[in-house]
Hints:
Chain A is an alpha+beta fold. Chain A has helices at residues 24-34, 38-41, 43-46, 58-72, and strands at 14-21, 84-90, 99-111, 118-128, 134-145. Chain A is 22% helix and 33% strand.
Amino acid sequence: xxxxxxxxxxxxxxxxxxxxxxxxxxxxxxxxxxxxxxxxxxxxxxxxxxxxxxxxxxxxxxxxxxxxxxxxxxxxxxxxxxxxxxxxxxxxxxxxxxxxxxxxxxxxxxxxxxxxxxxxxxxxxxxxxxxxxxxxxxxxxxxxxxxxxxxxxx
Amino acid sequence: xxxxxxxxxxxxxxxxxxxxxxxxxxxxxxxxxxxxxxxxxxxxxxxxxxxxxxxxxxxxxxxxxxxxxxxxxxxxxxxxxxxxxxxxxxxxxxxxxxxxxxxxxxxxxxxxxxxxxxxxxxxxxxxxxxxxxxxxxxxxx
Lengths: 154, 141
Protein backbone atom coordinates (compact mmCIF):
# COMPACT_ATOMS: atom_id res chain seq x y z
CA UNK A 1 0.00 0.00 0.00
CA UNK A 2 1.24 3.54 -0.73
CA UNK A 3 2.66 5.59 2.08
CA UNK A 4 0.47 8.50 3.19
CA UNK A 5 1.97 11.96 3.49
CA UNK A 6 0.68 15.34 4.65
CA UNK A 7 -0.68 15.95 1.15
CA UNK A 8 -2.98 12.93 1.49
CA UNK A 9 -5.11 14.60 4.21
CA UNK A 10 -7.39 17.07 2.41
CA UNK A 11 -9.43 19.44 4.62
CA UNK A 12 -13.12 18.55 4.70
CA UNK A 13 -12.61 14.82 4.07
CA UNK A 14 -14.79 12.55 6.22
CA UNK A 15 -14.12 8.81 6.48
CA UNK A 16 -15.45 6.04 8.71
CA UNK A 17 -13.60 2.92 9.82
CA UNK A 18 -12.97 0.48 12.63
CA UNK A 19 -14.93 -2.18 14.46
CA UNK A 20 -13.59 -2.77 17.95
CA UNK A 21 -15.56 -5.09 20.22
CA UNK A 22 -15.52 -3.99 23.86
CA UNK A 23 -15.39 -6.88 26.32
CA UNK A 24 -15.87 -6.82 30.08
CA UNK A 25 -12.45 -8.49 30.37
CA UNK A 26 -10.70 -5.72 28.45
CA UNK A 27 -12.53 -3.00 30.43
CA UNK A 28 -11.47 -4.54 33.73
CA UNK A 29 -7.90 -5.29 32.61
CA UNK A 30 -7.31 -1.68 31.51
CA UNK A 31 -8.92 -0.37 34.70
CA UNK A 32 -6.88 -2.60 37.01
CA UNK A 33 -3.74 -1.16 35.50
CA UNK A 34 -4.67 2.49 34.99
CA UNK A 35 -8.06 3.51 36.39
CA UNK A 36 -9.16 1.29 39.29
CA UNK A 37 -12.42 3.01 40.18
CA UNK A 38 -15.39 0.81 41.18
CA UNK A 39 -17.45 1.48 38.03
CA UNK A 40 -14.55 0.23 35.83
CA UNK A 41 -13.62 -2.86 37.87
CA UNK A 42 -16.61 -5.17 37.63
CA UNK A 43 -20.39 -5.42 37.26
CA UNK A 44 -20.78 -6.04 40.99
CA UNK A 45 -18.57 -3.12 42.06
CA UNK A 46 -20.21 -0.80 39.53
CA UNK A 47 -23.74 -1.28 40.83
CA UNK A 48 -24.66 1.53 43.18
CA UNK A 49 -22.35 4.02 41.46
CA UNK A 50 -23.52 6.88 39.25
CA UNK A 51 -22.73 4.68 36.23
CA UNK A 52 -25.16 1.96 37.39
CA UNK A 53 -23.10 -0.77 35.75
CA UNK A 54 -19.67 -1.58 34.38
CA UNK A 55 -18.34 1.09 32.00
CA UNK A 56 -14.98 1.56 30.31
CA UNK A 57 -12.46 4.10 31.55
CA UNK A 58 -12.50 7.15 29.29
CA UNK A 59 -8.75 6.69 28.85
CA UNK A 60 -9.41 3.17 27.63
CA UNK A 61 -11.80 4.53 25.01
CA UNK A 62 -9.15 7.08 23.98
CA UNK A 63 -6.61 4.24 23.72
CA UNK A 64 -9.03 2.14 21.61
CA UNK A 65 -9.48 5.13 19.27
CA UNK A 66 -5.69 5.44 19.02
CA UNK A 67 -5.45 1.77 18.09
CA UNK A 68 -8.13 2.10 15.39
CA UNK A 69 -6.26 5.13 14.02
CA UNK A 70 -2.97 3.21 13.91
CA UNK A 71 -4.58 0.26 12.16
CA UNK A 72 -6.52 2.39 9.68
CA UNK A 73 -4.00 5.01 8.62
CA UNK A 74 -1.25 6.10 11.02
CA UNK A 75 0.92 3.04 10.51
CA UNK A 76 0.98 3.49 6.75
CA UNK A 77 1.50 7.23 7.04
CA UNK A 78 4.67 9.25 7.55
CA UNK A 79 3.28 10.12 10.99
CA UNK A 80 5.51 12.06 13.38
CA UNK A 81 3.39 12.16 16.52
CA UNK A 82 1.09 14.77 18.00
CA UNK A 83 1.71 17.76 20.27
CA UNK A 84 -1.34 17.04 22.42
CA UNK A 85 -5.13 17.06 22.32
CA UNK A 86 -7.28 20.16 22.26
CA UNK A 87 -10.44 18.51 23.45
CA UNK A 88 -11.63 15.13 24.66
CA UNK A 89 -15.30 14.66 25.51
CA UNK A 90 -16.73 11.51 27.05
CA UNK A 91 -20.29 11.88 25.85
CA UNK A 92 -21.85 8.50 26.66
CA UNK A 93 -20.70 5.49 28.64
CA UNK A 94 -18.95 2.63 26.80
CA UNK A 95 -20.25 -0.73 28.01
CA UNK A 96 -19.36 -4.41 27.63
CA UNK A 97 -20.72 -5.73 24.33
CA UNK A 98 -20.42 -2.38 22.55
CA UNK A 99 -18.71 -2.23 19.16
CA UNK A 100 -16.80 0.97 18.50
CA UNK A 101 -16.03 2.65 15.19
CA UNK A 102 -14.63 6.00 14.14
CA UNK A 103 -15.78 8.94 12.01
CA UNK A 104 -12.75 11.08 11.15
CA UNK A 105 -13.06 14.63 9.81
CA UNK A 106 -10.08 16.61 8.56
CA UNK A 107 -10.61 20.09 9.94
CA UNK A 108 -7.53 21.75 8.45
CA UNK A 109 -4.10 21.06 7.02
CA UNK A 110 -1.22 23.50 6.92
CA UNK A 111 2.51 23.47 6.29
CA UNK A 112 4.72 24.05 9.32
CA UNK A 113 6.40 27.45 9.21
CA UNK A 114 9.35 26.43 11.36
CA UNK A 115 9.90 22.94 9.89
CA UNK A 116 9.49 22.81 6.10
CA UNK A 117 9.55 18.98 6.00
CA UNK A 118 6.46 18.77 8.24
CA UNK A 119 2.75 19.46 7.78
CA UNK A 120 0.18 19.84 10.56
CA UNK A 121 -3.19 18.12 10.12
CA UNK A 122 -6.03 18.94 12.47
CA UNK A 123 -8.51 16.10 13.02
CA UNK A 124 -11.86 15.73 14.68
CA UNK A 125 -12.63 12.15 15.71
CA UNK A 126 -16.03 10.86 16.75
CA UNK A 127 -16.14 7.42 18.35
CA UNK A 128 -19.47 5.73 17.65
CA UNK A 129 -21.09 2.68 19.20
CA UNK A 130 -23.11 0.01 17.36
CA UNK A 131 -26.24 2.21 17.61
CA UNK A 132 -24.44 5.06 15.83
CA UNK A 133 -24.42 7.06 19.07
CA UNK A 134 -21.39 9.27 19.68
CA UNK A 135 -19.62 8.07 22.83
CA UNK A 136 -16.48 10.20 22.62
CA UNK A 137 -15.14 13.11 20.58
CA UNK A 138 -11.54 14.21 20.25
CA UNK A 139 -9.91 17.14 18.50
CA UNK A 140 -6.20 17.18 17.90
CA UNK A 141 -3.46 18.10 15.48
CA UNK A 142 -0.82 15.64 14.29
CA UNK A 143 2.45 15.95 12.39
CA UNK A 144 3.14 14.26 9.05
CA UNK A 145 6.11 14.43 6.72
CA UNK A 146 5.44 16.18 3.43
CA UNK A 147 5.72 14.11 0.26
CA UNK A 148 9.32 14.17 -0.95
CA UNK A 149 9.83 15.85 -4.30
CA UNK A 150 9.82 13.27 -7.07
CA UNK A 151 7.65 10.74 -5.24
CA UNK A 152 4.33 10.14 -6.99
CA UNK A 153 1.05 10.93 -5.21
CA UNK A 154 -1.34 8.16 -4.25
CA UNK B 1 -3.89 12.71 48.78
CA UNK B 2 -6.71 14.37 46.94
CA UNK B 3 -9.74 14.97 49.16
CA UNK B 4 -12.75 12.73 48.61
CA UNK B 5 -15.67 15.14 48.82
CA UNK B 6 -16.47 18.26 46.82
CA UNK B 7 -16.46 20.36 50.00
CA UNK B 8 -12.90 19.31 50.76
CA UNK B 9 -11.52 21.01 47.64
CA UNK B 10 -10.36 24.61 47.32
CA UNK B 11 -9.46 26.58 44.21
CA UNK B 12 -5.67 26.85 44.04
CA UNK B 13 -5.16 23.72 46.14
CA UNK B 14 -2.46 21.58 44.60
CA UNK B 15 -1.28 18.07 45.38
CA UNK B 16 1.65 16.04 44.22
CA UNK B 17 0.12 12.63 43.88
CA UNK B 18 3.13 10.42 43.20
CA UNK B 19 5.82 9.35 40.75
CA UNK B 20 6.02 6.59 38.20
CA UNK B 21 8.95 5.15 36.27
CA UNK B 22 8.29 4.41 32.61
CA UNK B 23 10.28 1.28 31.81
CA UNK B 24 11.15 0.30 28.26
CA UNK B 25 9.06 -2.88 28.71
CA UNK B 26 5.97 -0.95 29.83
CA UNK B 27 6.34 1.63 27.03
CA UNK B 28 6.50 -1.10 24.41
CA UNK B 29 3.72 -3.20 26.00
CA UNK B 30 1.28 -0.28 26.02
CA UNK B 31 2.19 0.63 22.45
CA UNK B 32 1.70 -2.96 21.24
CA UNK B 33 -1.84 -2.93 22.62
CA UNK B 34 -2.98 0.59 21.78
CA UNK B 35 -0.51 2.72 19.82
CA UNK B 36 1.76 0.53 17.68
CA UNK B 37 3.61 3.32 15.88
CA UNK B 38 7.29 2.56 15.19
CA UNK B 39 8.68 5.29 17.47
CA UNK B 40 6.84 3.74 20.46
CA UNK B 41 8.06 0.19 19.68
CA UNK B 42 11.62 0.30 18.50
CA UNK B 43 14.84 2.17 19.35
CA UNK B 44 16.03 2.58 15.77
CA UNK B 45 12.65 3.84 14.56
CA UNK B 46 12.51 6.19 17.56
CA UNK B 47 15.97 7.56 16.75
CA UNK B 48 14.88 8.26 13.16
CA UNK B 49 11.69 10.09 14.23
CA UNK B 50 11.08 13.69 15.30
CA UNK B 51 11.34 12.52 18.93
CA UNK B 52 14.94 11.40 18.52
CA UNK B 53 14.48 8.22 20.57
CA UNK B 54 12.00 5.58 21.64
CA UNK B 55 9.30 7.27 23.70
CA UNK B 56 5.99 6.47 25.39
CA UNK B 57 2.63 6.93 23.72
CA UNK B 58 1.01 10.12 25.01
CA UNK B 59 -1.98 7.94 25.93
CA UNK B 60 0.29 5.81 28.09
CA UNK B 61 1.41 8.94 29.93
CA UNK B 62 -2.19 10.11 30.32
CA UNK B 63 -3.30 6.67 31.54
CA UNK B 64 -0.55 6.51 34.15
CA UNK B 65 -1.49 10.02 35.25
CA UNK B 66 -5.05 8.76 35.79
CA UNK B 67 -3.70 5.92 37.88
CA UNK B 68 -1.69 8.28 40.03
CA UNK B 69 -4.57 10.73 40.45
CA UNK B 70 -7.14 8.03 41.05
CA UNK B 71 -9.15 9.79 43.73
CA UNK B 72 -10.78 11.82 41.02
CA UNK B 73 -14.31 10.72 40.14
CA UNK B 74 -16.24 10.40 36.89
CA UNK B 75 -14.28 12.67 34.57
CA UNK B 76 -16.47 14.13 31.84
CA UNK B 77 -14.13 16.16 29.77
CA UNK B 78 -10.43 16.72 29.29
CA UNK B 79 -8.96 19.48 27.17
CA UNK B 80 -5.86 21.42 26.27
CA UNK B 81 -3.74 18.31 26.70
CA UNK B 82 -0.07 18.92 25.88
CA UNK B 83 2.63 16.33 25.41
CA UNK B 84 5.37 18.94 25.58
CA UNK B 85 8.31 16.54 25.82
CA UNK B 86 8.67 12.84 25.03
CA UNK B 87 8.75 10.28 27.86
CA UNK B 88 11.83 8.11 27.27
CA UNK B 89 12.58 4.71 28.81
CA UNK B 90 13.69 5.12 32.41
CA UNK B 91 11.95 8.48 32.86
CA UNK B 92 10.48 9.02 36.32
CA UNK B 93 7.43 11.25 36.07
CA UNK B 94 5.83 12.98 39.04
CA UNK B 95 2.14 13.81 38.66
CA UNK B 96 0.27 16.60 40.37
CA UNK B 97 -3.10 18.29 40.14
CA UNK B 98 -4.33 21.76 41.03
CA UNK B 99 -7.94 22.77 41.54
CA UNK B 100 -8.75 25.72 39.28
CA UNK B 101 -12.52 26.11 39.58
CA UNK B 102 -15.44 24.73 41.57
CA UNK B 103 -19.18 24.98 41.17
CA UNK B 104 -22.29 23.30 42.47
CA UNK B 105 -24.49 21.51 39.95
CA UNK B 106 -28.23 21.09 39.51
CA UNK B 107 -27.95 17.69 41.16
CA UNK B 108 -27.38 18.20 44.89
CA UNK B 109 -25.19 15.14 45.27
CA UNK B 110 -22.50 16.35 42.84
CA UNK B 111 -20.14 19.28 42.51
CA UNK B 112 -18.08 20.07 39.42
CA UNK B 113 -14.35 20.63 39.86
CA UNK B 114 -12.10 22.02 37.15
CA UNK B 115 -8.46 21.08 37.59
CA UNK B 116 -5.16 21.09 35.79
CA UNK B 117 -3.05 17.95 35.95
CA UNK B 118 0.63 17.88 35.09
CA UNK B 119 3.50 15.38 34.87
CA UNK B 120 7.13 16.49 35.21
CA UNK B 121 10.11 14.21 34.59
CA UNK B 122 13.24 13.81 36.71
CA UNK B 123 14.94 16.71 34.89
CA UNK B 124 12.04 19.08 35.51
CA UNK B 125 10.66 18.92 31.99
CA UNK B 126 6.87 18.91 31.67
CA UNK B 127 5.80 15.82 29.71
CA UNK B 128 2.02 16.02 30.19
CA UNK B 129 -0.54 18.60 31.15
CA UNK B 130 -4.28 18.82 30.71
CA UNK B 131 -7.37 20.42 32.16
CA UNK B 132 -10.41 18.42 33.16
CA UNK B 133 -13.88 18.76 34.57
CA UNK B 134 -14.75 16.12 37.11
CA UNK B 135 -17.93 15.39 39.06
CA UNK B 136 -17.13 14.89 42.73
CA UNK B 137 -19.59 13.62 45.35
CA UNK B 138 -20.78 16.16 47.91
CA UNK B 139 -20.68 15.39 51.58
CA UNK B 140 -23.83 13.92 53.12
CA UNK B 141 -25.44 12.65 49.89
